[in-house]
């Protein structure tokens, strides 16, 4: 149908066609490629266009050429130049309103506005009658001031232009609002903190994801100072980078967030308008850990290759040496020869420890947490290490306000602290002070080992946890800190090396802080001997116990005031201990059935396999306390 062409011929297109044709003004829409997308019948009628110029896809250039040659724009000295000029203007289309007199003497107003999808819409209105009324008013109103008439004419034209401008502004506002909403929606979905900060370190924009990257930070930060939001210590670390970025130098760097121990990568992009800096912060803790794990895995692979070929033969040789020297030690040798034998035995035992260290490095040790009294453990550690420190080294241990017992692997923690204390002793060369401080840090247990030695070198800070890296020359194996690192990571913690402000090295360890709280346990077991044994295990761990010898007896006790959990055998003489679920109390079951037995399947609570020890019991009870 000439006069209106649409991209499709479906029902909605027909409705649109009919609606546009009822509009008195001429309408045309050209796309970003300067091809006709939509027009109505008044558009064809107003300009006398042939049908081919009102069909979808007709070019703007052909339409202009037709109008120029018909004299729509008056006489042209160079018609092709006039065509090129209008096409060039269309390529850089700007919103506008204008009124012009056509070659046939009629007046039209032209209102154009760009579209967000590209291209533009133009609306043409015949205003001949308005112009004639203005002329008639001028001709018949000699009494009116010439100035008043001119002002009235200008005001009328200005009103029409203002209405067109307002329409363009409303469309621009709508487009801008939609674009801003989309931008905010997208940035809010990004698992990173995106922000803008002005030159005074004040946030002017945030996607409200800062707490995802910096735990504990307030989500509402717009208008707040960076130092207030992130804390003094974190701000001090990033301020030099902020200053360089504000000065125009892009920055990408990583920091460790002190409160949480997370590794954060921060990218700073200068604001081109000189108003501050754009910030992208992401949590790369998992990436860094994976990178370090790959590095360590490569070193472990080397160690595994070494030990796979040598460990067997080396172990046999050490066994022979220890056996022969042990026989000599029992042979009643003179003091001088006996001393040599003891020295040889000490060297052989040192070889065994080295072999064990390499094996531990290449293998994976199971983490076995259990309730630990930290004060008693630190006292035992001090008693064990002081004889090896020498008279010139003092050891000071301090403990903050912590639960009486926490869930830790005591063997791992003792090995770690012993390693760090002996490293500090070696660094101080027999004179100085070693401090071990244990304190709570939010959800973490923080343990810091500091000394008054020379501190870590830059190389040591970068490589100290690598297997086989040592600063002790031939006196060191390079396995100590690597093993410490692996053990801490296995326990779900973090390790940070640094130098204290007053000098000396400081190693800070953070482990998950889980209190081993005393419980009032309902123990359900129908075997008297087993019940007595488990009762002793529970009371040794600081728990109180109420006993039941059957399922029926247990059901009558589950509503006792103060009861905190139930520990029950799965197979009781009068039923299943699993029936005690749903009583509003945490439940731990125990059974002699093997783990693969179908009677153990589908149980949504910890299940202990008999026989079990103190550690297994403590871990199962801790799981119900999480």
TrEMBL record:
Record-linked PROSITE patterns: HIS_KIN (PS50109), RESPONSE_REGULATORY (PS50110)
EC number: 2.7.13.3
Coiled coil regions, renumbered to chain: 152-182
The keyword Coiled coil belongs to this UniProt entry's keyword annotation: yes
Domain Histidine kinase stretches: 309-515
Modified residues (4-aspartylphosphate): 569
Residues of the Response regulatory domain: 520-625
CDD domains: HisKA (cd00082), REC (cd00156)
Descriptive protein name: histidine kinase
Native source organism of the sequence: Paracoccus versutus (Thiobacillus versutus)
């Amino acid at each position: 149908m000439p006069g209106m062409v649409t991209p499709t011929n479906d029902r909605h297109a027909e409705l649109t066609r009919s609606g546009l044709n009822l509009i008195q003004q001429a309408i045309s829409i050209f796309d970003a490629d300067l091809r006709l997308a939509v027009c109505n019948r008044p558009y064809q009628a107003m300009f006398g266009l042939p049908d081919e110029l009102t069909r979808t896809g007709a070019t703007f250039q052909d339409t202009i050429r037709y109008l120029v040659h018909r004299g729509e724009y008056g006489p042209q000295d160079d018609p092709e130049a006039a065509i090129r000029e209008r096409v060039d203007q269309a390529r850089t289309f700007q919103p506008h309103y204008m009124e012009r007199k056509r070659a046939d003497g009629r007046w039209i107003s032209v209102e154009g506005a760009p579209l967000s999808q590209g291209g533009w819409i133009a609306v043409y209105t015949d205003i001949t009658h308005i112009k004639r009324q203005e002329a008639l008013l001028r001709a018949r109103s000699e009494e009116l001031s010439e100035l008043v008439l001119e002002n009235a004419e200008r005001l009328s034209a200005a009103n029409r232009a203002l209405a067109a401008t307002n329409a363009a502004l409303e469309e621009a506002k709508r487009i801008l609002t939609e674009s801003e909403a989309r931008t905010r929606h997208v940035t809010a979905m990004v698992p990173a903190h995106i922000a803008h900060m002005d030159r005074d370190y004040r946030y002017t924009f945030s996607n409200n994801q800062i707490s995802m990257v910096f735990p504990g930070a307030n989500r509402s930060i717009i208008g707040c100072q960076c130092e207030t939001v992130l804390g003094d210590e974190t701000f001090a670390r990033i301020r030099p980078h902020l200053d360089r970025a504000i000065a125009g130098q892009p920055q990408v760097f990583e920091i460790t967030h002190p409160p949480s121990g997370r590794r954060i990568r921060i990218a700073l992009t200068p604001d081109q308008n000189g108003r501050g800096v754009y910030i992208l912060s992401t949590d790369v803790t998992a990436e860094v850990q994976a990178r370090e794990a790959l590095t360590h895995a490569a070193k472990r692979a080397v160690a595994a290759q070494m030990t796979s070929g040598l460990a067997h033969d080396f172990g046999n040789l050490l066994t022979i040496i220890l056996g022969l020297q042990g026989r000599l030690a029992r042979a009643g040798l003179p003091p001088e020869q006996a001393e040599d034998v003891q020295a040889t035995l000490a060297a052989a035992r040192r070889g065994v420890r080295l072999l064990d260290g390499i094996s531990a490095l290449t293998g994976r040790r199971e983490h076995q947490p259990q309730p630990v009294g930290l004060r008693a453990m630190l006292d035992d550690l001090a008693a064990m290490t002081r004889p090896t420190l020498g008279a010139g080294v003092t050891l000071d241990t301090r403990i903050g306000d912590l639960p009486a017992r926490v869930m830790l692997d005591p063997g791992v923690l003792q090995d770690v602290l012993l390693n760090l204390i002996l490293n500090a002793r070696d660094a101080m060369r027999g004179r100085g002070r070693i401090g071990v401080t244990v304190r709570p840090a939010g959800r973490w247990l923080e343990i810091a080992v500091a000394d008054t030695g020379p501190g870590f070198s830059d190389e040591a800070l970068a490589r100290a946890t690598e297997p086989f890296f040592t600063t002790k020359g031939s006196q060191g194996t390079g396995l100590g800190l690597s093993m410490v690192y692996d053990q801490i990571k296995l326990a779900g913690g973090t390790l940070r090396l640094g130098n204290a402000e007053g000098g000396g090295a400081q190693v800070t360890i953070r482990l998950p802080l889980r209190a081993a709280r005393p419980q009032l346990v309902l123990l359900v077991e129908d075997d008297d001997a087993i019940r007595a044994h488990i009762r002793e295990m529970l009371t040794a761990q600081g728990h109180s116990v109420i006993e039941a010898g059957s399922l029926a007896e247990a059901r009558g006790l589950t509503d006792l005031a103060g009861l905190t959990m139930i520990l029950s055998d799965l197979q009781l003489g009068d039923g299943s201990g699993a029936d005690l679920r749903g009583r509003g109390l945490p439940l731990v079951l125990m059974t002699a059935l093997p783990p693969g037995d179908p009677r153990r399947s589908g149980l949504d609570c910890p299940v202990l396999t008999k026989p079990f020890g103190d550690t297994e019991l403590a871990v199962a009870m801790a799981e119900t306390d999480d």
